[in-house]
Design goal:
The structure holds two protein chains of two kinds. Chain A is mainly α. Chain A has ten helices and two strands, in the order ααααααββαααα. By secondary structure, chain B is α+β, with helices and mostly antiparallel strands. Chain B has a single domain, classed as Nuclear Transport Factor 2, Chain: A (Roll). Chain B is built from seven helices and five strands. Chain B starts with a helix and ends with a helix. The chains are: A mainly alpha, B alpha+beta. At the A-B interface, helix 3, helix 9 and helix 10 of A face helix 4, helix 5, strand 1, strand 5 and helix 6 of B.
Chain lengths: ~325, ~200
């Protein structure tokens, strides 16, 4: 009798132990992923030559087309090589003129292309088979203003990462703007569902920055292109933001993991529901969609890096 | 004293006159063209599905007027332009235009009273300008910049930058990638297929 009891106790305990083990393993996997991402960053991003940063961009350059010195398309020929055959202009016989030479192409190294292409196709299927149908169903049920509110709510939760990024970039005006926004939107915006801070009177606009841009402001180059499964296009430098998010984004602290997963999924579905069609149109327009998305990613990020490095005073229009 | 007063007056007048005046022409050009597009899209007579083709035809005329497709093509091909024979160039320009048309025409025809604001004009060079505009929908603002070039005293668009992504540069990267491994003829073949598949 006593023996029986003890065995049943044992099995109960064993269940608990297994449960705890499982939790631990999940925890380990989470931490391991963070560590791996961190090492990838260390091994690659840091070794890169610095970007041309704020100080070298003069006010006059503000409006010039993207001039990227970081990685310039290697085979850009010198203007002297471009022949100057004067031919009939209207027939498309014009040679490529050298006045376009300053419009260099921003590129990013892509040593992992086979892997990235595979991940691109994986994410593509994920979008068309899962995310898009779900987001479409969701958007047919939930009216748009509500979805915008949900977006605002999650955006408000992203305050710590933006605030810290501003501080680390010594952008104190940005940091105080973020702080003000967070306070106002949390209190007057019903926990961040609305965005009263961005209205005309207060004009506290969201500081569009992250840890990847912070590193960029320190002169860290983007390294190479990497497409993460689910998370999409990134680079070792910008992946730091993924790690930072797991510490600084409140949603990451939700326990147990399946709550976290469902909250995170609903955030993604909500955000997607507001942008259905954008992905498709870029894809439809592309001759080689993989390359098109890679280029769009790098153009978008470089522009953001440039934007962060310019104070608003400098960004005024040039008048000639 | 009078002299001083006169001098100050002259100074003020000179200062006022020398305040840089915006060229304004590029922005006015784009603004007018976009309004023409909106007129077509809003035209109540063309609301029926049957009128879609008429709308498309009208938009095509405006597009030809607005865009410098030669400049657009050359800038996407950059140095590769020189590898194309004159005939291939003509075909490339036509095919590329069709690819763009097929991609964007439905998006444009989908237009449903979003607000379009033009707010800034920046001169990139003496004959080049960038016009910044944004499309405001209920949930977001999409920045769209038009890059324009002055040719034969007419401002024409040679690049469109949507959310900081330049269309020309995006295609340039793709064409570069393709032409690194393929001949111009093969690129044209890819484009022909792309036009057909829609």
């Amino acid at each position: 009798m006593a023996e029986e009891k003890s065995t049943s106790d044992c099995s109960c305990n064993a269940d608990k132990v297994v449960n705890i083990r499982l939790m631990n393993i999940i925890c380990y996997v989470k931490h391991f992923a963070r560590l791996v991402a961190f090492f990838v960053f260390l091994a690659t991003g840091c070794a890169h030559s610095p970007v041309q940063t704020a100080s070298t961009v003069s006010a006059g350059d503000v409006s010039s087309p993207p001039q990227v010195t970081e990685v310039v398309s290697a085979s850009l020929t010198s203007p002297a090589e471009i022949p100057d055959k004067p031919e009939n202009k209207s027939n498309g016989d014009e040679e490529y003129p050298d006045d376009i030479k300053d419009e260099q192409t921003a590129t990013i190294a892509d040593p992992l292309e086979p892997f990235n292409r595979a991940m691109y196709h994986f994410n593509d299927k994920l979008y068309f088979w899962m995310l898009k149908p779900v987001a479409q169903g969701y958007s047919s049920v939930v009216p748009e203003p509500a979805r915008v509110s949900v977006k605002n709510f999650f955006s408000n939760l992203g305050f710590p990462i933006r605030f810290l990024s501003c501080l680390l970039q010594a952008d104190f005006r940005g940091a105080s703007t973020e702080l003000g926004r967070f306070g106002i939107n949390t209190i007057w915006g019903i926990g961040g569902l609305m965005d009263p801070a961005a209205n005309k009177e207060l004009d506290l606009q969201k500081q569009d920055t992250d840890l990847g841009l912070t590193l960029a402001s320190y002169g860290v180059g983007h390294g190479f292109y990497i497409v993460w499964p689910v998370l999409g296009p990134s680079s070792p430098r910008d992946s730091v933001d993924i790690i930072g998010e797991s510490f600084l984004y409140p949603v990451s602290y939700i326990n147990p993991w399946y709550y976290w997963l469902s909250v995170r999924s609903s955030e993604v579905v909500n955000a997607t529901s507001l942008r259905i069609g954008d992905y498709e149109s870029l894809q439809k327009a592309a001759i080689d969609p993989y390359v098109a998305f890679r280029d769009a990613y790098i153009q978008y990020r470089l522009k953001k890096v440039k934007g962060r490095n310019q104070s608003p005073e400098k960004a005024k229009p040039q008048d000639k | 004293m009078k002299k001083l007063f006169a001098a100050v007056n002259i100074l003020i007048v000179v200062l006022i006159l020398s305040i840089p005046v915006y060229a304004g022409v590029p922005m006015a050009t784009v603004d007018a063209t976009v309004n023409r597009v909106l007129d077509v899209l809003r035209d109540p007579k063309l609301k029926t599905p049957a009128a879609k083709e008429i709308k498309k035809e009208k938009l095509r005329v405006i597009y030809k007027d607005m865009f410098d497709e030669m400049e657009f093509s050359r800038r996407t091909l950059t140095r590769n332009w020189n590898k194309f024979s004159p005939d291939q160039r003509v075909e490339f320009v036509n095919l590329f235009e069709k690819v763009l048309e097929r991609t964007y025409i439905d998006k444009i025809l989908d237009y449903s009273n979003e607000k379009i604001v033009f707010y800034k004009e920046t001169m990139l060079a003496e004959n080049q300008a960038e016009i910044q505009s944004k499309v405001i929908t209920s949930s977001k603002e999409i920045p769209i910049f038009y890059r324009m070039i002055l040719k034969d005293s007419k401002w024409k668009v040679y690049d469109v930058v949507v959310e900081n992504v330049s269309l020309v540069q995006n295609y340039r990267t793709q064409f570069n990638d393709i032409l690194n491994k393929n001949t111009p003829e093969q690129l044209l073949e890819i484009l022909r297929k792309k036009v057909k598949e829609h």
